[in-house]
Q: What sequence folds into this?
């Protein structure tokens, strides 16, 4: 399972969140506390927003601790909204194209979890993509496929509903090919202004998710696990819920797969 961090708030240097803390994402890459897999060395990535509406993206299939460019970028780049992710592969080859975050226009997405029996359901799910979404897909992970399904199911108009419909499509596909649906889905997605984070599983093993306020910048951080020793300052997100963060305000609502709406173009 992967580890990730998302930040939204006043502009800060990325290293303040990603690399400087005692239990930073770099530390979590080789010694995660709240993951089934302690080592997350199958690549890493960062996406961040600045003066332009689309995010910058830096990814590689090296372990996060082995790339000095990551440290340098985080130390010198300021951003009001950024994602960082370290990967432990459950599907897809070890390649840069399969490293999170994934971007589409002004959207960024990253994920920790899996689709059960993915090799069995993959073909059915890919057949449910629009031509445009299928052509835009560059990797072969279940995570990117979920993102493309959400794009087709109304991401721009209804972001949370789009992912609910995407996961409903995954469940439908599993039933269609005769396997038990299994989804573990802890994710973050953003349009560069709003930040969303979902924790959901079709069983009782939803990957962990926490959020906290960052006093120095009046920002909000959402993470797979706390990156410092002040665990009492972090709030656990219950399974089956979605966080929405807009201008420092945090709201939480129930989340579950529901009602697919499909594009066919």
A:
């Amino acid at each position: 399972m992967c580890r990730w961090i998302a930040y939204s708030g006043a502009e800060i240097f990325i290293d303040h969140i990603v690399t400087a803390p005692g239990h930073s994402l770099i530390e979590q890459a080789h010694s995660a506390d709240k993951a089934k897999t302690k080592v997350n060395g199958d690549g890493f990535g960062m996406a961040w927003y600045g003066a332009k509406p689309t995010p910058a993206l830096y990814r590689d299939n090296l372990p996060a601790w082995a790339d000095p460019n990551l440290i340098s970028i985080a130390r010198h780049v300021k951003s009001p909204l950024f994602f960082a992710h370290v990967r432990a592969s459950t599907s897809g080859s070890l390649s840069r194209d399969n490293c999170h975050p994934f971007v589409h226009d002004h959207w960024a997405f990253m994920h920790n979890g899996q689709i059960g029996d993915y090799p069995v359901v993959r073909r059915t799910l890919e057949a449910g993509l629009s031509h445009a979404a299928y052509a835009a897909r560059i990797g072969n992970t279940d995570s990117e496929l979920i993102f493309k399904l959400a794009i087709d199911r109304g991401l721009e108009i209804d972001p949370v509903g789009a992912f609910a419909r995407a996961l409903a499509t995954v469940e439908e596909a599993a039933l269609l090919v005769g396997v038990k649906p299994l989804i573990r889905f802890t994710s973050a997605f953003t349009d560069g202004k709003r930040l969303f984070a979902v924790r959901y599983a079709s069983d009782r093993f939803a990957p962990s998710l926490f959020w906290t306020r960052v006093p120095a910048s009046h920002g909000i951080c959402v993470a797979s696990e706390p990156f410092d020793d002040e665990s009492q300052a972090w709030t656990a997100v219950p399974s089956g819920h979605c966080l929405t963060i807009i201008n420092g305000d945090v709201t939480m609502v129930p989340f579950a797969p529901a009602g697919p709406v499909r594009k066919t173009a």
Observations:
- The two ends are 34 Å apart (CA to CA).
- The first strand starts at residue 3 and ends at 13.
